């Protein structure tokens, strides 16, 4: 299972969410869960694939296995503290599993 975070370099909301996700350690939510960051501005990626996130970052997505598609989670509030973010992730991931 992979938890994707679509970000843009220099985005303060993205940086804060990345910091909080690392602080809560997503492995405590599910031991199989991995965090993968995707910078939507990287020149070596197919740009149109991530163009829909242009004004939406940060976006969190979830993929159960390699054969499934990425499911976007609801927009997360930047005001959540670490415990609230962990509970929010747990609730959303449990719903998808």
Quick structural summary:
This protein has 97 residues and is of the alpha+beta class. It has 3 helices and 4 strands, in the order E-H-E-H-E-E-H.
Give a written overview of the molecule:
It is a single chain. The chain is of the alpha+beta class. It is 33% helix and 20% strand. The protein has three helices and four strands. It has helices spanning 12-24, 47-50, 82-96, and strands spanning 2-7, 34-39, 59-63, 71-72. The chain has a four-stranded mixed β-sheet, covered by helices on one side. Strand 1, helix 1 (12-24) and strand 2 (34-39) form a beta-alpha-beta unit. Helix 1 (12-24) packs across helix 3 (82-96). The N and C termini lie close together (10 Å).
Unreliable stretches covering 5 or more consecutive residues = none
Radius of gyration: 13 Å
Query: Terminal Cα separation, in Å?
Result: 10 Å
Rounded mean pLDDT is: 88
Biggest β-sheet strands, sense, barrel = 4 strands, mixed
| Beta strand count | 4
Spatial arrangement of strands, main beta sheet:
2-1-3-4
Strand-pairing-aware structural class: alpha+beta
H-E string: EHEHEEH
| Structure annotation, total helices | 3
Approximate strand percentage: 15-25%
Helical content stands at: 25-40%
Overall outline = globular
């Amino acid at each position: 299972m992979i938890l994707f975070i679509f970000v843009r370099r220099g985005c303060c909301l993205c940086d804060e969410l990345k910091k909080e996700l690392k602080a809560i350690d997503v492995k405590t939510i599910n031991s199989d869960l991995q965090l993968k960051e995707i910078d939507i501005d990287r020149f070596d990626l197919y740009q149109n694939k991530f163009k829909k996130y242009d004004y939406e970052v940060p976006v969190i997505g979830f993929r159960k296995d390699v054969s499934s598609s990425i499911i976007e989670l609801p927009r997360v509030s930047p005001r959540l503290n670490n415990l609230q973010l962990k509970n929010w992730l747990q609730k959303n991931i449990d719903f998808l599993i």
